[in-house]
Amino acid sequence: MFSNASSFVEGVDIAFFIIIGISLVFLVGITAAMIYFVIKYNKKRHPKAEPTKDNFQLEIFWTVIPTLLVLGMFYYGWVGYRPMRIIPNNAIPIKVTAKMWSWSFEYENGKWDSLLIVPVNKPVKLELFSPDVLHSLYIPAFRIKEDVVPGIANVMWFKAQKEGTYNILCAEYCGQRHSYMLSKVKVLSQDDYEKWYNAKDTLAEKMMPGEIIMKKQACIACHSTDGSRLVGPSFKGLYGSKRIVLMNGEKKEIIADDEYIKNSILDPNSQVVDGFPQGIMTNYSGQISEDEIKQFIEYIKTLKDD
Fold first, then answer.
1. Residue 203 backbone phi and psi in degrees, to 5
2. Which fold has domain 92-199?
3. CA dihedral angle for residue 204, residue 207, residue 212, residue 214, rounded to 10 degrees
4. Cβ partners under 8 Å of residue 138, min gap 6
5. Rounded CA gap, 49 and 305, in Å?
6. String of b and e for 75-102 (b: at least 16 CB within 10 Å)?
7. For the chain, give me the number of helices (H) and strands (E)?
8. Do residues 84 and 73 make contact, with C-beta atoms less than 8 angstroms apart?
9. Contact in structure between 142 and 156 (CB atoms under 8 Å)
10. CATH fit for domain 9-85, picks 1.10.3210, 1.10.20, 1.10.287, 1.10.1740
11. pLDDT values of the chain reduced to their tens digit, one per residue, 306 residues
12. Quick check: 305 and 236 in contact, CB under 8 A?
């Protein structure tokens, strides 16, 4: 009857089925009663209104029955919710960073990926972090959702019970490209997970350090490397180009040199390229080191116009 994608599915689905079932009974019952009373007590049949008498039994009935139903819904909701707050001590910790507009997942050995990769039948604890705005990590197949709030440490956990690939969504509107903030959970067998976890990242070895930083910091969620326009200017052909920027409400022409790129990372809203929205990019001070900025700039230099 229930999907076995995670250990929470049955409890959550039972609660929803009960709530929806009770709601449907009330919807049909109240609608039927309304139609019955409209027909029985219409003006043609009862041109003169008559006061109704008190009915103590009826008052008890419509007080006690709804109370019991509400308590029943609360009970099944609590039964489904409570296990989500009791995190096993042996849960695998994974740091989740939500940024406009992408997800990144970092593991204990320093490995990171844009996909959430976990072993089957093992508890996983997600440590949620956002450096910019409010997000919400939602995995529909696992029946779990938790807000990712800037400045507040939040956690969630799950145990995937079936191998496969499942969608990750952001369930809190977080700006212009909110609908693009998608990822996947890949649930692997224990052996496949250990092979992936312990394997060297051959793709990262082929990348320049600055390209790895760009992907890890989710820069490509807003800036393309092929010249196409996204929320922010493309990195292609950026270095050494002339740009019209807004500085203190005035338009000025600048050269996109090392200092400009560094300032765009640490104080992004002080020089916004004309024609692009202001106040979108957050300050990356404290999130990226001086050496990483230099490596990032070296990579930008390679993205020349054809």
1. -65, -40
2. Immunoglobulin-like (2.60.40)
3. -150
4. 144, 145, 168, 169, 170, 171
5. 84
6. ebbeebeeebeebeeebbebebbbbbbb
7. 7, 13
8. no
9. no
10. 1.10.287
11. 456 888 899 999 999 999 999 999 999 999 999 999 888 888 777 777 777 778 888 889 889 998 999 999 999 999 999 999 999 999 999 999 998 888 999 999 888 888 999 999 999 999 999 888 899 999 999 999 999 998 888 999 999 999 999 999 999 998 888 988 999 999 999 999 999 998 876 555 667 877 877 877 778 778 888 888 888 888 888 888 888 888 877 888 888 888 888 888 888 888 888 888 877 777 777 778 888 888 888 888 888 876
12. yes
d(CA 171, CA 19): 22
- Sign of the dihedral through C-alpha 288, 293, 297, 298: negative
- Regarding the domain delimited by 204-302, which CATH topology (the fold level of the hierarchy) does it fall under? Cytochrome Bc1 Complex; Chain D, domain 2 (1.10.760)
d(CA 148, CA 141): 19
Where do the domains of the chain lie?
9-85, 92-199, 204-302
Bridge partners for 247 per DSSP: 250
What DSSP state is assigned to residue 276? S
